[in-house]
Amino acid sequence: xxxTTDFHLFESEVGRHLLVVDGSRLYDISQELPTDEGTLSKxxxxxxxxxxxxxxxxxxxxxPLQTLSLNVAQTCNMGCSYCYAGQGAFGGKPKLMSYxxxxxxxxxxxxxxxxxxxxxxxxxxxxxxxxRPLLCSIMPYAERAAAAARRTxxxxxTTNATLLxxxxxxxxxxxxxxxxxxxxxxxxxxxAVRPMNDGSSSYDRLIRGLQxxxxxxxxxxxxxxITVTPSARDLPGILDxxxxxxxDSAGFSPVLVSxxxxxxxxxxxxxxxxxxxxxxxxxxxxxxxxxxxxxxxxFETALQEIDRGSHRPYPCGAGAAYLxxxxxxxxxxxxxxxxxxxxxxxxxWSGSDYSARASHLTARHVDRQEPCRSCxxxxxxxxxxxxxxxxxxxxxCDYIRGWLEFCLASYVVLKxxxxxxxxxxxxxxxxxxxxxxxxxxxxx
Length: 444
Ligand code: SF4
Ligand code: SF4
Fold this sequence. Notes:
By secondary structure, this protein is α/β, with parallel strands linked by helices. Helices cover about 40% and strands about 15% of the residues. Strand 10, helix 7 (about 235-245) and strand 11 form a beta-alpha-beta unit.
């Protein structure tokens, strides 16, 4: 397929298509149109004339803050073999965030947010429930403080779910929290890489945690985060198992950076990773066509971004509208970059360092990265996670492009055969289920 800095030609079950990189615009290409580079370049010049590009290399100025993650417990009750953070301590001593730091964090987020903003506070670790009393007190405070400042606030929390108690489930349900649970597959697969600190199984404790959610209060959204290490290759089987546990969605995240390098994927591992991702994506595509839920979050997120025409010169909001607070109140680009002096952008008392954030956004613009500036996937990918790129480089680019090409091809098929899915996925599944019930009723 022709493939340049400015466009990418690809095929799907329903025809040939062109991604115009500027603006992530998609076009169907007739079978008669020559697809040599010269013809397509001319076409792309008409769509996106020089000087009118939607992303022109100008760096983003730091926007108002919208999301802050609080590392409430830089320590953990588990000993995962691949952890990038050394059980949450990031190479330092284990620490718990005090109430004063958490309150100052909430106040800082409100002070640096825009009028009427819809704010998000994430709780991370280590394991956040190691610092349970803080969670119980800071959530109500954040809601009161946001309301007084005419903002709204939502919460997210990433947990291993092994310390959950009935009151924790009630707390998260009451405060409308999106909960992400880390689980890596069936019991044997999960326990091989996610043991408790004493080496015992975490799986049974995690299942008990999920049962507590069902019994005492289900979070607003319950997702699973599946970490992919070199030893667990059956991605479709793992995804089937995890979704069968009742999660609203589940997605994969490969290990690129680990304190134990044997737990990180090598370049050659991305071949089987891509195969597994595509097999899982194909199952999710078939499920959408059949009107059945099979919420593979990597796939659904990619579909939604392509549908929105998402084009961005950064991989994420780190250092822009998103910052992370260390247990002792330092502000960092994100939760993985906590305690990294190069990514320290102020503290919760004196405020975020605007000029350091601006320098970060200038340096990290994808058009200033090599080899990203000539990659057709750059405004969908954004140039790769800062944490991973700094420590590991970019070993997964063929995998990223292969996955995006699959998602683009799947998108055009679904857009043609299941357009209602893109209008409102929740309504789409509810309606198709109702349709099946109705026809089953009529048949009888
Ligand atoms: S990180 Fe790789 S895939 Fe992503 S934009 Fe850069 S070169 Fe392309
Ligand atoms: S830098 Fe990496 S880990 Fe941090 S928010 Fe961005 S993508 Fe996520």
